[in-house]
Amino acid sequence: MDCRVAVIGAGASGLCCAYKAAKNGGVVLLDGNDRPGRKLSATGNGRCNMTNLNISPEFYRGDPGLSELISVWPAQRVIGEFQRLGLMTRADGEGRVYPNSLQAAAVTGALVSACQEAGVGFRYGFRAADISRERSGFTITGEHGSKVRAKYCVLACGGMASPGHSRGEGYSLAKGLGHSVTELSPSLVGLRVRGKFTRALKGVRCKARAALWLNSRELCGESGEVIFGDGSVSGICVMDLSAHMRELKGKSAELRLDLLERSTFGELVSYLTDFVNEHPNRQAEELFSGVLNLRLGRELVKLSGFSGTFQELGPREIKRAAGLVKDLALPIEGTLGWEQAQVTAGGVPLSEVDMSTMESRFCKGLYLCGELLDVDGLCGGYNLHWAFATGLTAGLCLG
Known about the structure:
The protein is of the alpha+beta class and about 400 residues long. It has helices at about 10-20, 40-45, 65-70, 75-85, 105-115, 170-175, 235-240, 265-280, 295-305, 315-325, 380-399, and strands at about 1-10, 25-30, 50, 60, 90, 95-100, 120-125, 130-135, 135-140, 145-155, 185, 190-195, 205-215, 215-230, 230-235, 255-260, 330-335, 345, 355, 360, 365-370, 375.
């Protein structure tokens, strides 16, 4: 099979690239899955946070060389591309942009329809195992031996996150064509914590301020919903903190939670003191019953070592209990695995790519897009924006 442009990966960046490149015809999308946009259709719990009105390099980690591309592709330009495809969008109060239907499938559908209208060919069940550079272009060999020949090749295979959708084969393909790959790790993922405290809290959700601490110093923090698991803590605010974990490899960090951010330590001590004094015969396990999730409150009482009734709680015990609520320290063992991760931290350095075209600086005619590159954003639409912007950039160059 011969074509002008072979795009490997029918995800967010690959679909964007293919429909733009198809202006000059001869574009084929190759994907190992049985349909296009599987991961895209599942993003945001099926709602698809496409971009963010507040797009800025400060919301990204990894290679700092992304500023130029982000300035060329502000949120409104990406939104405009989808409007031309017939997709209306809406933004929430925090700038997160969604399809108006709140259905990720509508985003995938708009891109697939645009590709079909432009004459893009789709070849499913083709998982690239090898790419060889030849005088006339590239020969792409699938894992079952079939071959595709193309003048230009685009790697838009996705990363290691969500292995049910992508397996990370793009990294080995890029290496085979002369590129390097920085260390890969799961990002936008829950954190594994040491100890037994969270075991009885699986499924409990609460509002909190979560912060990463190292050597008695706060590195970063964010407020939001925290979700407890068996040996883990997640939620958007915690997942955003996970983007910093590769910087802390081998270091003993802590996750600290303020479980009652709207009250000061002094206010909480005063409240608990009054509560204890007015109800001396209540059981100690009820100490936080009017303040926190009931299961969470009972586990904090156990952690405090309290039993019996309120009569046994003096000023020292009350301050200790309030301290746990305002500063619950959980030693971090690492992140959860690739199955739970939303994106990949690490990848091909941006210095190896011409950011104005996404063409490889090492292999003429090769283009790299999306999660394959060493850029990962926080929650809020930043990662999909990166995928769309890089794919559109490559497609415009090839079209």
